[in-house]
Amino acid sequence: MRGRTSVDGEFEECGAGDGWAAVVRGAASLLRRHGRLAVTGPWGAGKSTLLEALAERSPVQEGVTPRRCLWVTAQEGDADVCYGALVQLLSAAEANGCEGGTPPRPQDRASASASAGAGDPELEVDPSGGSSGSRRPPTTAAVQLLRHIEAPSPSHRLTLRLALTRMFSEGPPLLLVIDGAQWLDPDSADLIGYALRTVPPAQLGALVAERTSGRPPVAAALLGGHPAVFPVPPADLTETAATCARIGLPVRWAAAVHRHGGGHRALLDAWVRHGSARAPTPGATAAPAVPSGMTVGLSPAPPRQVRELAAAWLASVPSDVVETLQVAALAGTCDVDLLRHSGRRRAEDHLSHAFDAGLLLADQDRDRGQGQGQAQAHGAPYRFAATALADAAAATVSHDRRTAIHRALAACSHGPVARALHAALAQETPAPVVAEETAYAATLAHAAGERPRAAQLLLLAARLTPADRPRLRLERFAAAAEQAAAAGSAALTRRAADRIMAEHGTRAQRVHALLAVVDATGQDTAGARPLLATARRIAADDPELLAAVELRAAVQANISGEDHAGALHHAEAAAALAVRARNSPLEAAALTMTARMRRVLGRVDAAATVLDRALSLAVPPARLGVRNSPQYLAARHAVFDARPAEARTLLLQLLPVAEESGEPEDLVDLWRSLAEVDAGRGACGDALRWADRAVDLTAAAGLSPGPAWYTAALAQACGGRHDRALHFAAHAVRASREEEDALHTARGLWVLGATLLHTGRVESAAAALAEVAELESRSGAADPTVLRWQGDAVEAFALSGRTREAQGLLETMQERVGPHPAHAALRASLTRARALRHHLDGAGDEAAELLTDAAEVFARLGLPVEEGRTHLLRGRVERRRRRAAAARAAWETARSLFADAEAHPWSVLAEDHLSHLTGRAPGQLLTEHELRLAELVRTGATNQEAAQQMFISVKTVETVLSRVYRKLGIRSRTQLAAALTA
After folding, report:
1. Rounded to whole angstroms, how far apart are CA atoms 67 and 205?
2. pLDDT tens digits for 737-760?
3. What is the SS3 assignment for 390-459?
4. Cβ distance 769 to 750 under 8 Å?
5. How distant, in Å, are the alpha carbons of 376, 640, 907, 921, 957 from that of 911?
6. How many angstroms separate the CA atoms of 321 and 344, rounded?
7. Which of 540, 517, 541 is closest to 529 using CA atoms?
8. SS3 at position 441
9. What is the pTM of this model?
């Protein structure tokens, strides 16, 4: 669609994931503070990789004597080797010396295992793509030390305790690193524990990794009972997205990869190593399907290595636990009662064991947004930590046992939907009665808003329908395609559509099956064109079918952003065909699309007239889908026109409709619009919450991520953190580009450029906003209010020295922006931009007058963040005019507006301006209470530790710390240390 531009490097920097680096920093902070640390996590969590990262950071601590690292690496079976870990420890000490020398590298550490062989797979996890390397066997001298001991005795143990303690106490400070503490032999553990209890942490630091998801009993015994514990967290979605982008996987795959692996680092590492071969080559097309292009939108199948790792993790627990997990996987729930009734009498014990092994998570930790369309368990305390584990458990069940399990589940499942599902899965041959019951269960699932489950049941019902009833069979496949498309499930839609095409459905069934596949692909326009061409050919001269095809063509043309006039043509054709077909719902949808495109092309009044026609048909929004309804477009027009109160009222009226239907795309679009409205009207906290919900449900439902990430960037830029805004914006741009979604590419670029502008990176901001101008020019869009980027672009151009571009854009906007009320907010932002140009040219009086006018307009429209921005600029103008009191008044007004709006990043900027004006040192800006907390945090205290020392709650610490950040104009603990030092 487009080549790389000069701003792409900025995208890569802004979108770079900080997940693993943040993990290392968090663990390093605890280690510095306590001197000793237990690292916990399940199989493959990345504990060994974290130990290596911490060991590499530890040798030099603020200029003091380097710490030498001694490694003990235990493996399964080593617990039976008496003094095996001690031999390894003494070997490492002898090889590297207790005096002088260079600290050993992690790859030089010895292996405690008496026999050679493959180690714990988790030891090979490395998010950067590296590996742990080789391990040396114990040296002969160390073995000789213990060879005379045939059986441990109290005297031997005492002698060894004294020797080990002396070795640790003398010489330079040491860091003892123990990996795989759960496999230490008891005799070595006793000696090492005694030394750690005797030698102070300043002389003998310790890092101990233990495989557990709960309290680490071995590490706790070694480190004194109540050590600092750092559980290695899973990778979150944004880190997964950054990892996918780094190795060339499509960003849209990130949600599927994260959902499949649950953020588990060994599984993510396997995706990194082996999944990149599956990434599509840019510009390449998929292999032809029947019909061509049907593969668009499908999620990736996991590489074989990922499946093997999941199976290996599952095999780390006893076989009877695995058998219970197999039943849970086939049941789709870890409901203890259900598992017991199906024959797993020790289900509760088995699930608890699996939880301790990290295979299951507590169900209250279920990701937000997954409630829509998910089968909720009755009293299920756990869920699988990763889809890969459930898949691995189910894949290892034999055919006969699988059938028997489904029969047992059908007899004891809660509710008719689950009973029908398992009865259908247990049925191996066509059965009319079972098919009828399954189809009825699908209607119940649909009524409950469980669209994916309804689609699955309809597919099963169609499969169980006898071949001598082809009409009913095809009707069920058609209904399955419709339900799956509404749920955004491209895979289920494709399966149903394939059967309709293969079994020669009617013309209407084939056309609607193809359109369902188009609908399921969301914003991904790359493969939609051939599907629409095939649907148009099959529709022939049927006006109703052609209207449906033309409507989808209009939507795709709008998303691609390449031909808005063409999109209008398709929409108008669809409306005319719908009138011929006498299909009022289809006519309302087509008129709505026509109004949308007329507005984009700048025909504001004509768009309102057509929208009124669509509304007059009185088609309920649920009939069309909320996002396709004229009622929703009316709310969007209120957003464009900067009428936030009216827009919010209309959106909230539609929200119950979307919640009742449970359709993910409707909910996501409504939440995104509410976030946009609340950000504008000064309810930034609400905006962040709406945006979070949209991001979560987008990931859970497998929708195109670009739109939700754009909204998250917008909300973060107003009320969150500028670095988070840049992160989300960069991912939104990358995802939208991959899907050839020019609409959200431009929106993502706007937020990216605006945030770069506000954080002082004006050259990069100008480059991003120049690309927005290019995209808008290419599309032919003429309504500048749909995306109000122009004022930010003028400011970026002016500040970066691109004065001709700034002046040219101002002149163009002067021609396009008229006195229409819909243009009021845009006129005010352009007035502010013009004031900046006057300010840079030294015309302070003219700038101040323009800013007064702009602030009044924003206040009248109810846009406090924009009003505050205007006062910020007014303060700069007044300070340059040497009017300190006027500057202070402007910035205090801005600070008050931002505080009321919960616009935290803007509050930071206002505080920064005021602190520079007063000339006070950062520490003098803080109260005694704030300064004490800041000093604790600067020295490495966590929020929990600070709360304990100050006898306040963690919530209070977070509140006070946010206030400190705002006062000092900073956004991180690193910046806090620098500010207080200054």
Report:
1. 9
2. 888 888 899 999 999 999 999 988
3. HHHHHHCCCHHHHHHHHHHHHHHCCCHHHHHHHHHHHCCCCCHHHHHHHHHHHHHHHHCCCHHHHHHHHH
4. yes
5. 47, 31, 6, 13, 20
6. 10
7. 517
8. helix
9. 0.74
